[in-house]
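Quick one, tokens below:
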């Protein structure tokens, strides 16, 4: 068997194989290509900022040189990434390979070639890496993660409004309980998602550019009177659009990453909960799934239309959360001023977020197939008159009738209750006739409280 040539079929990860097209938007952002691209961006912006710092030895760059440098970022290609990889074969150091590649682009520019030693000036590799990782996460969050979450929230909001008044028998502990509406149950999920989304969006992405152990040692050896801390903050915040962390060791301590990954994990957990509920509602017959021509549900049972999209979503959210949890627990830990255990783990950010995005896409696909089975909903409600024990005994309490809970318990607990039986009980109550008429008009399908109002309001 010869699988030496890489293809999607021989990919070790299904994210680059079976599911490659569904996470394609993440690939240029969180891959090794994406990391190289951001490293080039950081090196370029640091270099340009140094030229503007007022040093006699490094005059401000001309507009042509700035255009050439930033063009290396905007036009960065797979060929450029491969060229850096080729240099790394010699250096065995990925960041140094970027520095050498960048300097090699200066050959036809005397101005840039003369200033070449200011590339990576006073930087440790982690000054470049941590800012690059911040930029990668910034783009992935803004361009893929939040927009995909917003698509789910918008879809569920539309469903909540459309099904706001569709009554459904609730099931607490799996047993029949006070009715709700489908729209209200979906609105609950929307409210949770909006809170979780805000936590993801609000995490500040931190970065540092302060040298080998975070003290600007090399910087001050060259220009001891220059305000390197303020300079670094300007580069990070104004040129790169990240938030400055003034206190670090050699690495930015990754606490913000843990916060971000924990926030994504919490949102994924909400969607695991929802995926399982939808699976259960499909099993109960409350939802039907639209069939797709040519699609097969079982190799032996032709009738089956399985809730596979919700099962796929649940499985992929589980994988995402396992990886995100490891990232959040491991990354803030570094022996003394630096160890390399974070380096290989950070290369899996795209894998963790990729599984989350795959889960989101599976969930959206499944939601698009759902149809309400109103006949089944009505049948279940009509077979659960015992749920009216709650409003009846509550009204009895209002009018101080003796032992209301115990009397309803005796009537309903573990027994099959009919509409006639409930109405007979109500007719025997010594309560005002208007209240009696209101209870007699009540059905399991109408006993939904403010569910429709709450669903429409979300």
């Amino acid at each position: 068997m010869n699988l030496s040539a890489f293809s999607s079929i021989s990919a070790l990860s299904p994210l680059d194989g079976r599911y490659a097209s569904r996470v394609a938007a993440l690939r240029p952002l969180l891959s090794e290509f994406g990391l190289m691209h951001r490293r080039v961006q950081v090196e370029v912006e640091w270099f340009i900022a140094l030229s503007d710092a007022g040093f006699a030895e490094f005059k401000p760059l001309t507009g042509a040189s700035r255009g050439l440098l930033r063009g290396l970022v905007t036009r960065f290609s797979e060929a450029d990434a491969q060229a850096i990889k080729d240099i790394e074969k010699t250096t065995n150091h990925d960041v140094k390979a970027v520095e050498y590649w960048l300097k090699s682009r200066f050959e036809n520019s005397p101005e840039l070639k003369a200033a070449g030693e200011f590339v990576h000036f006073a930087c440790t590799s982690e000054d470049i890496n941590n800012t690059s990782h911040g930029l990668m996460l910034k783009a992935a969050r803004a361009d893929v993660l939040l927009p995909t979450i917003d698509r789910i929230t918008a879809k569920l909001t539309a469903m909540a409004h459309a099904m706001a008044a569709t009554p459904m028998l609730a099931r607490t502990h799996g047993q029949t309980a006070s009715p709700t509406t489908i729209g209200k149950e979906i609105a609950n999920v929307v409210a949770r998602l909006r809170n979780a989304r805000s936590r993801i969006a609000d995490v500040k992405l931190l970065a540092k550019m302060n040298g080998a152990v975070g003290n600007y040692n090399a910087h001050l050896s060259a220009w001891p009177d220059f305000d390197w801390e303020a300079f670094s903050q300007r580069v990070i915040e104004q040129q790169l659009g990240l938030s400055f962390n003034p206190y670090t060791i050699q690495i930015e301590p990754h606490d913000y990453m843990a916060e971000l990954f924990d926030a994504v994990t919490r949102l994924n957990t909400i969607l695991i909960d929802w995926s399982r509920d939808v699976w259960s509602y499909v099993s109960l017959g409350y939802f039907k799934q639209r069939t797709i021509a040519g699609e097969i549900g079982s190799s032996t049972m032709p009738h089956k239309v399985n809730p596979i999209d919700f099962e796929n979503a649940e499985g992929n959210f589980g994988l995402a959360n396992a990886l995100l949890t490891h990232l959040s627990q491991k990354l803030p830990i570094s022996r003394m001023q630096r160890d390399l255990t974070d380096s290989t783990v950070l290369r899996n950010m795209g894998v963790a977020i990729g599984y989350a995005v795959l889960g989101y896409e599976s969930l959206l696909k499944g939601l698009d197939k759902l149809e309400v089975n109103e006949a089944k909903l009505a049948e279940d409600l009509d077979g659960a008159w015992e749920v009216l024990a709650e409003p009846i005994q509550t009204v009895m309490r209002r009018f101080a009738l003796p032992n209301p809970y115990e009397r309803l318990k005796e009537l309903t607990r573990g027994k099959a209750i009919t509409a006639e039986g409930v109405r007979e009980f109500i007719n025997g109550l010594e309560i005002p006739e208007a209240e009696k008429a209101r209870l007699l008009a009540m059905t399991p399908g109408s006993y939904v409280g403010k569910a429709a109002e709450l669903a429409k309001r979300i």
